[in-house]
Every structure is written in C-alpha cells, then in structure tokens.
Amino acid sequence: MSEMNSSIAEQIPRLRRYARALTGDRNRADDLVQDTLERAWVKQHLWRRGSDLRAWMFSIMHNTFINQVRKSQLPMVEMDDDALEVPVRATQEDGLHMRDLVSALVELPVEYREVVLLVGLEQMSYEEVAQVLGIPLGTVMSRLSRGRERLRTLMGGEAAPMLRRVK
Amino acid sequence: MNNNDMQIPEHELHAYVDGRLDAARRAEVDAWLERHPGAAERLHAYRQQNDMMQALFNPVLKEPIPLGMHPRARPRHFPMPLRYAAMISAMVISGILGWSLRGVEAPQQKPIMAMVNRAALAHVVYTPEVLHPVEVSKEQEAQLVHWLSKRLGNNIRAPHLAGAGYELMGGRLLPGNQGPVAQFMYQDGKGQRLTLYISSKMAGKGEASFRFAQEGKVGVFYWVDEDLGYALSGEIAKPDLLKVANNVYQELNK
C-alpha cells in the first residue's frame, strides 16, 4: 500500500505543473491536485499494476478538471464544430509576453488547452495524450493543430509581421 | 525541384515541431520549409510556445509541496461514522494548522531565484526577435547605459565580451520583481545569442560566487556583486557559458 502511496506522491510535482498551466491560478491548481490525489487514492484498486501510473493520474486529473469546469457552469463548447470562434483580445505591444501566454492559455478552450499543454509542457507522445484524454489520435492531432494556431493568434503572433511598427 | 508542390501533412508538421520525426523525414521537412517561409514562421511560433511554456511552468516542479498534499494524508478504512469523525477532525486540524502556519508555508521564492526565472523568461522572449531584439542598439551605447543606470538607480555597465567572442547588440529596460531591470544582448559570429540581466536592490552578502540554474533549455549563471544581481542566460553548453560569465565578471571589475 505504501508503495502505491509513494508512487502516487512521485507524480505530485508534474501534476502541479500541469494544473498550474491548466487553471492559470496557484490555489485552484493545488486544489485540483489535491482532489486528484484523493480520487486516485479511492480508485487505486482500479489501476492495473504495470500500466503507466503517470498517464492514469493525468487522466484522473483530466476528469476531475472537466467535472469542475462543468459544475462551475463555464460555457462548454463542443469542439467538433469547426466554426467555433474565440474573440481575439488586443495584445499589448509592451511588457513581458510571458504574461500574455498565461492569459492566452486561459482563454483557449479547455479541449485545446489540455492537448497543447500535454504535448508542449508535459512532452507526452500523441498516443499518450489520446490515452489520458480518452479520445482518438486523430482528434488529438486536430485539437493540437487548432489549439496552437488559436494560441498564436491570441498572442498576436500572426499580426506582428503585418504591423511593422517601429519604436 | 519538381517537389515544390509537395504538401507536408499537418500532423507531420506538428511532429516536426515536437521533435518526433526521424532524421530523414526531418531533413525533408527542413528543405520544404526553406521554400515555404509562411509555414516556417508558423512552426517557429509553435516551437516558441513550447519553449515559453517550459520556461514559465517548469519552476513549479521545484516548488516545495504544500503540507497535507499527499495521498497518505487521507483517512483510511474506518467504518463510516468513524470516517466522518476522522474527516471532521482532519478538517479542524488542517484548519488550525493552516491558520497557524499562514505566511510560513507560502513558498516565497527567494528574490534571487525569482530574478533567475525572470532572466530566463526574458531570454526566451527576446533572443528570437529578428526585427527588434533590443530596444536601444549598440550604436547608442553611451545613452543606453546612462538611461538604464538612471532607471535602475545604480551605475551599471555593459561589459565588452569580445574576448569571449561575443559582441554587444544593445539592451532594453524590463519590468522586474522589484522595479526596473536591464537586459543586454550579445551575439557571436554564428548568431548565437546570450543575454545579461541586471537587477538592482539585490541584498548581496558580498559573495560573488557563480551559481547555475537550468530553466528549460536555457542555462543561467547568476551572482550578486555590490547590490546588483546578474544573470547570464544562454542556450549553450554549461562550460562555455561559465567562460563567458567569468569574462563578464572580469570586465565589470576592471
């Protein structure tokens, strides 16, 4: 039992990193990690020995997060729809663009945000992402493609070469 | 040349960004991107997204884990009424603990580590810039140094690193944790860029020893010297970066 405990505990730093990026908020992120740990503890008999514990924990976090998002009544949009539009916020020219990344990530629809982060931040293979999120590989790739492009637009990367602003 | 109209499937472009293509295919995509600058720019932006995410969130891995965040801290196989009792007492205890430890546990980053983190972020953000890598270029070095000194409230200098093979490109003013900070950018003959981040109001203990931190792909040597904190960032091998850091230190203490 304690072996399982320490294996779960080993995942905490990575779960916290992902949660921080996913929620954009320190306290919300740590609450999410705590909820994930509790659910993992309760469901540990469901984990198949020898299978990837990290993927299992991340998928518990995914489910926990999605449930929270649904409960908090934030608008959930079905992502099968190509026509989904996200309003593009005017980005500041000055200041640290890193700040923009945090706010742009939070503005990214949850389904895109998860895929972009699991690939770019967690460095998971596309197959692992499909396993964690419980979606087909093709869906991972299309969400990745749209998510990255949306993020680029949100951060003003697309408009920059056209503006040619000289300070 | 008759490959000009060949299209690379979108999923392979992403695999390229994520370094998941084999060498042969990567070379083909490289060649294709040469002829498709729009796509090259797009992929560059995607890669930068990955780098920025890493630089921004990797420090979370090193943060101390909050008290109580541990699977073992959960109540175990008590009978139901006992389980509720355990939950309530756990809530009361953690409430008391939380209250009495307020301000203690909140993992305040040391100012120097916050500086290192920000230096690495600024490095990742500004070194890929093609049009505006610096705010004021080296042609106006005297004004640049004067301006930055004034804003930082400290006499700062832009060390000359020709001895290490790096040339000053210029610098910029940036928002730091405790007010304005300066960033100087350098480039070698091959276009490899380094940045020197200088922050004032660092409570130095007079020990000017180099320390090293790795923030994603960016290596950072940092030290404190007479109230000024320095962080030299680069995506080069650690021994090479150390050589330049030594050079910076010598130049500044001439």
Characterization of the model:
The complex is a heterodimer of chains A (167) and B (254). By secondary structure, chain A is mostly helical. Chain A has two domains: 1-76, RNA polymerase sigma factor, region 2, helix turn helix motif (Rna Polymerase Sigma Factor, Chain: A); 89-167, Orthogonal Bundle (Arc Repressor Mutant, subunit A). Chain A has helices at 2-10, 12-23, 26-42, 53-71, 97-107, 110-120, 126-133, 137-154, 160-163. The longest helix of chain A has 19 residues, at 53-71. Chain A starts with a helix and ends with a helix. Chain B has 254 residues and is of the alpha+beta class. Chain B folds into three domains: 10-57, no CATH class; 71-100, no CATH class; 111-252, 2-Layer Sandwich (Phosphorylase Kinase, domain 1). Chain B is built from eight helices and seven strands, in the order ααααααβαββββββα. A seven-stranded antiparallel sheet of chain B has the order 1-2-3-4-7-6-5, sandwiched between helices. In chain B, a hairpin with a 2-residue loop joins β5 (211-215) and β6. In chain B, α1 crosses α3 and α3 (37-57) packs antiparallel against α6 (111-126). The radius of gyration of chain B is 24 Å and the shape is flat. In chain B, 31% of the residues are buried. Mean pLDDT of chain B is 83; it is low at 74-79 and 100-108. The A-B interface holds A 2, 5, 8-9, 12-14, 16-17, 20-21, 30, 33-34, 37-38, 40-41, 95-98, 101-102, 116-117, 119-121, 123, 125-126, 141, 144-145, 148-149, 151-152, 155, 157, 161, 167 and B 10-11, 14-15, 18, 20, 41-42, 45-46, 49-50, 52-58, 60-63, 65-66, 68-72, 74, 121-122, 125, 132, 135, 174-175.
